[in-house]
Amino acid sequence: MRKLLACLLAALFLSLSAAVTAFAVPSSAPGEANIENVDYYRNNPYRGSTINVFNWGEYISDGGEGSLDVNRKFEELTGIKVNYTNFDSNEDLYAKLKSGGANYDLIVPSDYMIERLIDEDLLLELDYSNIPNFRYIDEKYKGLYYDPNDAYTVAYNVGYVALIYNKKLVKETPDSWAVLWDKQYEGQVLMFNNPRDAFAIAQSLLGLDYNDTDPARWAEAYDKLLEQKPIVRSYVMDEVYNIMESGAAAMAPYYVGDYFTMAENNDDLAVAFPKEGANIFVDAMCIPTTAKNKGAAELYINFMEEPEVALANAEYIAYATPNTEVLKMDSYTYKDDPTLYPDEALFENYQYFHNLPSETQSLMSNYWSDLKVDGSSNRSVYIGLIAYAAAVAVYGVYHFARRKHREKYYD
Fold first, then answer.
1. Residues whose CB is less than 8 angstroms from the CB of residue 81 and which lie 6 or more positions away in sequence, other chains included
2. Which residues contact 342 (CB under 8 A, 6 or more apart)?
3. Which of 46, 237, 359, 384 is most buried per CB count within 10 Å?
4. Domain 160-280 carries which CATH code?
C-alpha cells in the first residue's frame, strides 16, 4: 500500500512539474532566454507564415556550445518559420537584391550599403509601433548619417578595425599603422583582402578622408599600398584566423570582435588601436522592398532586441552591442571590456564608410586589381578617365540646361 501511495504521489508530482514547465516563462539558463512579454509573440497574427532572413555568416547565436538558438526560439514562440541564409559581403547582398532573383523579408547590411539602398528606394520604412524594443537602442546609434530620421533601420551590431599582433613577434606595442610598412616585418604582415578596408588603412596613415572623391587622394593611397606590397605575406579575410592563431604571421588589421576568437586559441595575441584611427561600422536590420511578410519581419526585429536575445547574440558574436540593457547585465562577459568598449576618446579619429559615387568605386576597384595582379601603376590613366567622365557629365548638364532654357523661351 505504501509503495502504491508513493508511486501515486510521485506520478502526481511529475504531472504538476510538467504542467508548471509547460506554462512557465522560459528560463535564462544556458541555451534559453527569459522573454518578458511572451504573449506578444505567441498571439501574433502571422502564425504559419515564413520570413526569409539574409544575414552575414556566423552572425547570430545558433545554439552552438550551449548558446541560445535564436531562430529556433523565435519559431517556437511565434509559429513563424525562419528561412535563414547568409551572404559574404555587402556587395553580394546588393547584387542579390538588384537582380530580383530572391525575395528577402529582412536583411542586415552595413551602414554605407544602407545609405545606398535607401538612395535607390530598395528599403521599406519600418513601423516602429511594431518594434517597441527600439527603446533599448543606444542613442548614439540612432539617427546616424545613413538613416538620419530613423525611418528604415534598427542597429544590430557595432564593430571597428584595430591591429591584431603577436607579442612574441612584435618587439613593442604598436601605436601606428606605420608598423605594417616596417621592413623588419617583411613576410610577416597580413592585409585585408578587400579594397575598402585596405585603402582605409593607407588613408588613415596619410590622414585622408575615407570618403574623399578626389582621384588624386586615391592615387596617394594606392601608392602607399604599392609601397607596402613587398612586405605583405598575403591579403586575407577569414584565412586570418588560422594564420594568426598558428603564429605564422606577426600582425594583421582586422575587426576587433574577431580578435577574441583568435585569442582563445593563441595567448600570444594582443590588440592595439593605432593613433591614426580606423573604420567604425554599424550593421543594422532593415526590410527590403522585396519583403512579402513585413509584419513578421518587424516582429523578428523586435525579438532580436529582447535583452536576453541580444545578450546571447552579443556573447556569441563578440561584437559591441547597441542594446543598452545588455550593457547593464553583470552576466555579460564583455561588460566594460576595454577592447570591445574602449574609451570614447579613442573614436575621435575613427570614420564611417559612406556610399561612394560609382566613378570613385570604379577607380578604387581598378587600383585594387592592379595592386593584386602586378602592382603596376596606371594612376594617370585612371585619373584621366575620371576627369574625362566628369567633363562629359558637366557638358551634358550644360546642354540639358540650355535646351530647357530654349524650350521655356520659345514656349
1. 49, 50, 51, 75
2. 273
3. 46
4. 3.40.190.10
Answer for the pair 287, 106: CB distance below 8 angstroms, yes or no: yes
Hey, how many other C-beta atoms are within 10 angstroms of the C-beta on 370? 18
CATH 3.40.190.10 domain span(s) along the chain: 26-153+286-342, 160-280
Contact 250, 167 (CB under 8 A): no
Distance CA 37, CA 311 (A): 17
**pTM value?**
0.81
| 292 DSSP 8-state letter | S
pLDDT digits (tens, 9 = 90+) for 226-284: 999 999 999 999 899 999 999 999 999 999 999 999 999 999 999 999 999 999 999 99
Amino acid at position 313, single letter: N
CATH superfamily of 26-153+286-342: Periplasmic binding protein-like II (3.40.190.10)
